[in-house]
Design a protein that fits this description.
322 residues, mainly beta, Jelly Rolls, eight-stranded mixed β-sheet, seven-stranded antiparallel β-sheet, 3 helices, globular, binds manganese (II) ion
Length: 322
Amino acid sequence: MPAVYVDDLSTLPKIPTAAILPGVVERRAVDIVDAPRMLEGEGFEVRRAFSGVDLRLVGPFLLLDHLGAVEYSPGEAKGAPDHPHRGFETVTYMMDGELEHRDSNGGGGLITDGATQWMTAGAGIVHSEMPTEKIVTKGGLFHGVQLWVNLPRADKWAPPRYQDLEADRATLLASEDGGAIVRLIAGELVGQRGPGSTRTPITYAHASLSPGARLQVPWPAHFNALVYVLAGRGTVGPDRRPINEGQLAVLGRGDVVTVFSDAKQDNGQPHLEVLLLGGSPIKEQVAWYGPFVMNTRDEIKQAIEDYRAGRMGSIPAKRLEE
Ligand code: MN
């Protein structure tokens, strides 16, 4: 897993284990759901982690798609050719493999090796998200996630913007027991900030826990709190509810999130890999149709018309040098 890793975790800032003082509440899993598998784009499989979960429990997030991990055979890798977005942000974190991005502003680039691309679609953009030629022809390992972050009404018409967050910009922290590394992509944990700039308060992190490790982090009481398992097995909360790969734990109210890695992991699986995420819900009406997320049905109709009329642009033909 090329997501950034550090051999000696003792060199990293430590997350002190929260003293569970009277009045401090460890968040309990109120629901554990299996992410259903579905097909996206040209027909690649994702696990859609928030599917069927009440949006109020995941806000300000809208969707979390887990791609892989999958070992593609030559000719097998597929992507999402030209399509529009308006009214929210897509945040793509690639742990293995290479995703090539192109858009209607003439922008493009590679997302790979633990990098995150934070795309504010805002008023509207057309883009494509495809595995590179190399992965299509030769095959290879592919593992990533795409998170959709809603925008408040005032920001839905913001000009499109990218943040290319290379892997070495993630803020690294270690658990108190030294058994877990946390890569903070956005938001704040124990006074440290991740590199992503967000429109509303959120925390987004990828943690790897060695077998038997415990990760305990303070979490703002007004944030939703979610734990999604990318790989491995463990437990969550004070009552140690089991969580496995492809499962989402929706946590209830409280101040502290605790994740434990099982002492025995499956063969070839060195860590429990989880995403820790949450934020302050945006308390506005949501009108959602495919790649458009607005506040009203009229705004959705307008988005469809604008896209059909070419007002979100189109991806320029291949550059001359290609
Ligand atoms: Mn897209």
